[in-house]
């Protein structure tokens, strides 16, 4: 739309009012909201606009000023507020021929930013703010986006196919799709919560910083192959979400166990507390498949020499396991519990001569409850107070856990 500034004299003598007239064509507009806080009443921004094209800034406090574009030369604008609060600022071109190509507003307590009506924008700097969302889907000319250290939980850059530099580190992103950004040369996505990273389409990639995420070793290996200069790769430490499991559980890291041609095998370092775990008593591992035997807090660290990264950011994946001690039922001379035959092909007898057996529950190795027997109420179990016979022939062969009166023991089904 065309915007014309119109001056007219009001009813009060000597007072001149300013208004704007609008036509139907949409002009470039940038709109954002920022917070004015104690000790920081002055705010500033930098913009580029088409040479000699006028635009105006409405600072949101009944003050505004005009400016003219200077092509590729930055124009710095600033304003001082006289009271604390939240203000919405609008920057609008007077004519459709006024195009904004560059906008920078950093460390300014931005809480919202709308650049959807600014399709010529090629550079956007909005880092070190408080943005919880950012829509750049209309900014198809964007080549540089620096939005790091905000509060973004998602970021869609699928429409920004011209993007060459993306710095989105220091947010709360759980996923990031850069498959459409085939011209991307620099990707800085560290210190997020990314669960995966696929840069297989980014053939121009020369810089990659991805540490402090939840990325598996297999994705780090694939990513490391895309950047040739090892000093430009900061893959670093990845921490997977902690897991709570029961003793006897199997953890499958087989897809992380080897990479490259010929095979380079992953080194699994497993600690129980601060000490190395015992490879016989505490766990066994084969081809990346770990079975934990005893209770405790374990830390598994995975590294592989086929994954090349800058020396001060070596690639490693860490995951913690809290293993519940359910391997052997607690028995004593006062209330001995007998379970037989164990292993079994189907029938199980549970006997406790001293106490009444009220509840029997069956769990699989990942803790999912499969059956629950209560005295005198469930078919499939003959209940006689302190003596129970259970048929588990319907279960697949494997390891299970019985919970009897809040005591847990391991059973094997053939």
Biggest sheet strand order reads 7-4-9-11-12-13-14-15-16
The tally of helices reads: 1
Within CATH, the superfamily of the domain at 243-324 carries the name: Immunoglobulins
What low-confidence regions span 5 or more consecutive residues with pLDDT below 50? Answer: 6-25, 326-335, 376-380
**Quick one: biggest sheet?**
9 strands, mixed
Which second-level CATH architecture of the domain at 243-324 applies? Sandwich
Structure description:
The longest helix has 8 residues, at 217-224. Among the domains are: 243-324, Sandwich (Immunoglobulin-like), CATH 2.60.40.10; 338-413, Immunoglobulin-like (Sandwich). The strands form eight sheets. A nine-stranded mixed sheet has the order 7-4-9-11-12-13-14-15-16, with no helix packed on it. Strands 17, 18, 22, 23, 26 and 27 form a six-stranded mixed sheet that branches. A five-stranded antiparallel sheet has the order 6-5-8-3-10, with no helix packed on it. It is 2% helix and 42% strand. The model is unreliable at 6-25, 326-335 and 376-380 (pLDDT under 50). It contains one helix and 35 strands. It has one helix at 217-224; strands spanning 3-9, 16-22, 29-36, 42-49, 54-58, 64-68, 75-80, 85-93, 100-104, 110-117, 123-125, 144-146, 165-167, 186-188, 207-209, 233-234, 237-239, 243-246, 250-252, 258-259, 264-265, 267-272, 275-276, 283-286, 289-292, 296-303, 316-324, 338-340, 347-351, 359-363, 369-374, 381-384, 387-391, 398-404, 407-413. With 414 residues, the chain is mainly beta.
